[in-house]
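Hi Y.,

Following your request, here is the sequence exactly as I used it, all 130 residues.
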Amino acid sequence: MVSISEAQANRAALANGEGLPDVRLTRSARIKEPEAGGNLTELKADIKTAVDQIVSLKADRSAISAEIGGIKAGLATKGIPRRSLNRAIQDWEALQTEQPDETTNASTVDEAYIIAREALLIPIQLGLFD
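Below is the corresponding structure, written out as tokens. Let me know if you'd prefer a different format.
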């Protein structure tokens, strides 16, 4: 970290056209050089392949997210709020991944959800169109 006096000295040096002092990287901050007789060709190829895969997956994810958004928008026009749908999907996915010893009957989950909402002073809407 640069002290205040060093920072002031650097600013003064720049103002006088002297430039900043020469800074050298420590040995640990340098890029590791390949072993004797080795090169970085394979590593660079691996990086290029990984970046290509990541970019492709991000594009796929964007397309999938847009499609999901369209489905949710269609249900929203029919009166199903996105938040409600997201909550139902989250609950359904949780039920699909629960182990047999973790299962709780639905009424217990519903009651606990209502209690949690009451504790957080979140109003409870009993009917969809209430």
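The mean pLDDT is 76.

Thanks again,
Q.
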